Every structure is written in structure tokens, then in C-alpha cells.
């Protein structure tokens, strides 16, 4: 589903954020990338939807060379990739339900339908996904009335409503306390598996990775220093 072939990325300030990365992620894997701040996790993720372009090598997503995609194909690819952010990125003054409807932008809904009316089937999909995350009773509450954990779960419902093939979650629990972090990771893993999605999560703590990842990739200073199933991490530490 995702392949990095000898990918390097040097930012204009000469920081080498990625150094000769080779990596294959199969469809349906739930992968956690672990590493300290500045290790290159976020940059690696940004290569997948071309938020940044490598200075060397190739990134291949769903059999397409990402750097060679024309605008319309790139837009299609981005519709297939759902993103979860550290700070949730909800529209504060909008209801939870309308925030989840944002997942339909790029599909059937237009921005217009988002602020006034939207197709009935999109509405039903959004409600279904709020239910799956156990937060449907908050559908008509303003999103900024929710706790951090609830807001992150709304953002998971939004990403599901986008119906992507891939989910990229960049430090999704970095602003949450430990019990809430576990709940968010548990929900994210469960729905990823239910929908057969390929999911990559960046974390800076190994303990959460150990509990939820199918596979852990360790990064340090732009390089992959570990890649394997959990059993091997335990052997090495
Ligand atoms: P992580 O997600 O592991 O914290 P990043 O990918 O954000 O790591 O950063 C990797 C390195 O690249 C760091 O040294 C960071 O300061 C640098 N970096 C990240 N984004 C940029 C940018 N837009 N311009 C210049 N340097 C950047
Ligand atoms: P992230 O949370 O994406 O790992 P930060 O919070 O460190 O990154 O930085 C916020 C934004 O600034 C990101 O878009 C990142 O790419 C960019 N950035 C990070 N480090 C640098 C840098 N050294 N120079 C320029 N931009 C940077």
C-alpha cells in the first residue's frame, strides 16, 4: 500500500529530516512510528500525501509514484488519506455532527452543503460513525464544549466518514492524559481493523506503541533504527 524507496529529504535550512528510508507497509497494517521530537516522523508522514516532497528517492502509494501525480490524481489520493492531528483540528463553533460531515468534503458534499443542508446519506454515515466511536449523544453539541479526548474521538469519526484507505495520525494522543490516550488508541485500532484500513500513528512514547501496534518502526535523526513486530522490541530492551 505504501512504499518508500531510498527516500531522503533535506529541508531548505539543510536539516536532513530523512536519510535513505526504505520501507514497505502492507494494506491493513496498524503501524506505530516511535521516536523523539525531531526524529523525522512527521516528515515521513507528510511524504505520503505530498505535503512535502522528498529530495531523493520515491514514495509509492496505492501503486502510484506520489511525486509524479498530476493535480487531479493528487486530489484523488488525498481523498483516500485521512489525517488525525495532535490538536484535533475541529471547527470550534460548529456542532460535532457538522464537524464529522467535514469528512465528506471532496466526496459528495460541497462546502455549501456543509454550512446549510447536506445529503441524507452523508448525514446517516456521519451518525453511524459517531455511534461506532460511542459519542453520538454529543452530535448536536458544539465541538468546543467537549473534552480533549472526546474531541479526538470526534476527529476519528470525521476521518472514518471520509472513507479513506489510509489513516495518518500525527501524535494523536500527545495532548491527552494516559487513560484517555489508551481509549483513543483503542478506538483508532478497532475501527482501523473493522474497515481494513492501513494506519500509521506517530507517537513519542513506546509504551502505547507496545500495546497497540502490529509493528513498530523506531526513528532517530532521520533514520529507521528499528522495524519489526512487538516481540522483537521486547527482546532488544
Ligand atoms: P518529528 O515528527 O519526529 O518530531 P519532524 O519530521 O517534525 O520530526 O522533524 C525532523 C527534523 O526536520 C527536525 O530537525 C525539524 O526541526 C526539521 N523540520 C521539520 N519541518 C521542517 C521545515 N518545514 N523546515 C525546516 N526544517 C524542518
Ligand atoms: P510537528 O508537530 O509537525 O512535528 P512542530 O510542532 O515542531 O512540528 O512544528 C510545527 C510546524 O513547523 C510544522 O509544520 C513543521 O513542519 C514546521 N517546522 C518544524 N521545525 C521547523 C524548522 N526547523 N524550520 C521550519 N519549520 C519547521
UniProtKB/TrEMBL annotation:
Taxonomic lineage from the root: Bacteria, Bacillati, Bacillota, Bacilli, Lactobacillales
- Alphabetized UniProt keyword annotations: ATP-binding, Cell membrane, Membrane, Nucleotide-binding, Phosphonate transport, Translocase, Transport
GO MF, one annotated term? ATP binding
Q: Which NCBIfam families match?
A: ABC_phnC
The record, for InterPro entries, names: AAA+_ATPase (IPR003593), ABC_transporter-like_ATP-bd (IPR003439), ABC_transporter-like_CS (IPR017871), ABC_transpr_PhnC (IPR012693), MetN_ABC_transporter-like (IPR050086), P-loop_NTPase (IPR027417)
Which PROSITE patterns does the record cross-reference, listed alphabetically? ABC_TRANSPORTER_1 (PS00211), ABC_TRANSPORTER_2 (PS50893)
Family matches, as SMART domains? AAA (SM00382)
Q: This chain belongs to which protein, by name? A: Phosphonate transport system ATP-binding protein
Q: Name one GO cellular component term.
A: membrane
Q: Which residues form the ABC transporter domain?
A: 2-237
Q: Which SUPFAM superfamilies match?
A: P-loop containing nucleoside triphosphate hydrolases
